[in-house]
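Support reply, case 0932

Customer input (verbatim):
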Amino acid sequence: MKRIISILFLSFLAVAIQAASINGHVKNKKGESVSDAEVSVLQSGKLIAKTNTDTNGVFSFKNLTSGHYHVYAEKSGHEKSLPQSLILTVNDEKTINFVLKPSVVKPNEKEIVIEAFNVVENDAEMSMDFSLSQQQHKSGNAQRSRSINAVFDQPAIQHNTEDYSLIEENRFHSAKDKPLSTFSIDVDKASYANVRRFINQNQMPPKDAVRVEELINYFNYDYPQPTDGHPFASHLEYGDCPWNENHKLLMIGLKGEEIENENVPASNIVFLLDVSGSMNSPNKLPLLKRSFEILIDKLRPEDRVAIVVYAGSAGAVLESTPGNEKEQIKAALNNLNAGGSTAGGAGIQLAYKIAKENFIPDGNNRVILATDGDFNIGASSDAELVRMIEEKRDDGIFLTILGFGMGNYKDNKMEQLSNKGNGNYAYIDNILEAKKMFADELWGTLYTIAKDVKIQIEFNPNLVESYRLIGYENRLLNDEDFNDDKKDAGEIGAGHTVTALYEIIPAGSNEKSGDVDDLIYQSRKLKNSADLMTLKLRYKAPDENTSQLITKAVKAKPKAEPELSDNFKLASAAAMYGMLLRNSEHKAKASWEKAIEYAKASKGADKFGYRNEFITLLQKAEYMAK
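Our regenerated output:
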């Protein structure tokens, strides 16, 4: 009996220790406390708690678990406040202050104004002012109206300076005029998490925030392991295109060799952390710290970590330290505070210097840069930073870039740096995404097994009228770059999968794309072949500068929809997701219903729940798009 009581007490104590809370104050525009105002807490769109303010206008919610919440206040005779999005973690105490404005209704006019509220976390105050109005005017029998949809579900961001590179979608190319398609593989996943952030805030993402290949490659696919001595295996599947019945879809999948943790070489890692003033918000530096703690817990005694920070200047706050000294590493991390301008270039120089000084031959040497990308002093232009990163990659040091935050997020800068620095790039929008990177997929993120991986496909004009590569617009290469070992390309990590899709118009179709006039001084003679295409792959070992070549001819054996694999359906669903978000000119009959159908059909075991979350995102986007 005592044992049972002890277990119950310990369970209760564990819950109590981990409980988070939200406190706040509701006032009117005159600064007077508003008693008996109703305050609601929602999670995933569902009401989970509700309370009323006391005579002093104060409210409190206790014993909340970690997670993402929305909170709003309302009272009869006042306009409902705009909800605030909050992320709670273990032992969090967050304070939200609401200001309610009295309702004003005039003849023939309805006005809703939501003015201001403050969000306070651990003495760091952030103010966000919102103004929103809806008016209806009548004149005789004519009525003009302007409506605002889902006003209370869409937090606005003032002075938004987020920056994304222009994406011009790949078009169809004639297999007769341009039989070769060449590109660098890409295992970046930042776009998926960033798009998720917008959708979870009930906003459609900016068009250029959507990189379709990163939506496709967010998931791990069930491809076979390599068996031929190469560090990765290739897999191909050819079938009906789900958004255009007259087209086919070709899926190319690569699977990196999986390596047991104990067989991964020792790691020399430098954390390069942005602690400038722009990182002073809950979804930036505090989330960054919690994310890196997950990685620190996974370090082995043979691994080493140094910490470099930059704000107005750059400095080392932790010398290279063995991975089993976790408390020392965490103490250095948790002592960091945000403030000052952003000397990103100086930080990069120092981080690479320390990584080189502690270089482990035949080991895993990497800089992990965590920032919102808002560099503003020193080397800060895209060109300067890219040239700096290009110089550093020859030292055998790889780069991981992690993006945090919103409002001033510089996606374009970080994507360029990761592409040029033998690196990968991810966006951390919540603690579960950090867990995905640093726990579920740790060595795929941090340990490179093949670098400068390029793909070149030669399509057979006898069977292919035209084709287009879906996504990878920022990874295209000139055809001659395929054989040039000086040209940089993408990296594959241990156990990683990489997926690319081609939409194909079969030969004999009445649909023509990109026709050009017949050549005057040359004539084309096609060879008879039953091959759909030839796939060529080039890659280098992580410590080598000469590439190896893999070549594979592929026969045309298209599958009908019932025969398509879960891999094919999942990739197709992600491609439709991207095309619909971008309102692609190539989306044809792609629909949210079809994307959801394919996502559900390919859910499988879904060990970590990522595919189920994808279905939820599709459903949210479907309703917002209506």
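We compared this against your earlier run and they match. Two observations from our side: Residues 7-17, 105-158 have pLDDT under 50 and may be disordered. The longest strand covers residues 448-459. Please reopen the case if you see a mismatch on your end.
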